[in-house]
Amino acid sequence: MRVSKSLLIGAALLLLPSLALAQDSGGTKLFYVTATSTNPNTTITLFNQTTGPGNLKGISCLFVGPPDTANPPASLVNVYVTVDGGTQLTITLSAINFPEDGSSTKQEFTGFLPYNVRFASSLKVQLNRNNVAGTYNNIVCQATYDLD
Questions:
Q1: Which residues partner with 126 through β-bridges?
Q2: Which residues, 6+ apart, have CB-to-CB distance to 100 below 8 Å?
Q3: How far apart are alpha carbons 52 and 122 in whole angstroms?
Q4: Which residue, 21, 53, 58, 121, could crosslink 114 as a Cys pair with Cβ 3.0–4.6 Å?
Q5: Domain ranges of the chain
Q6: Which of 147, 141, 135, 148 is nearest to 37 (CA)?
Q7: pTM (two decimals)
Q8: CB atoms within 10 A of CB 104
Q9: Max Cα separation, the chain?
Q10: 8 A C-beta contact, residue 146 and residue 66
């Protein structure tokens, strides 16, 4: 009995540090932004926050228009994330990796992709879609972030 109780307490103590790291501080102001990319090979800004600390919660993108007829990975959107003026991080989303909705407009949705990226002073998120024949007409992306 004493050994099992000690093992249980020991296991609980091992989990406490990982639970503390998983917590999100939660900002005081939550924001939702959206941008639509209608022109291929054009970089657009989803948002550019330069007034203080916060947290990028996540991003989602919707590929809208006729079905992708080109070979994968034809319909792409590059998401560029720059934290505190540092090196630009690139996340490439390909329509071929996400399910079609089955409607006549053939939309593909990435779902909400959690990021949980902290920034101290600035955060810039930009989008750039490719120019390949047979790709989607528009790509609509959304993001949520909060400010401390």
A1: 45, 80
A2: 67, 106, 107, 108
A3: 6
A4: 58
A5: 26-147
A6: 141
A7: 0.72
A8: 8
A9: 69
A10: no
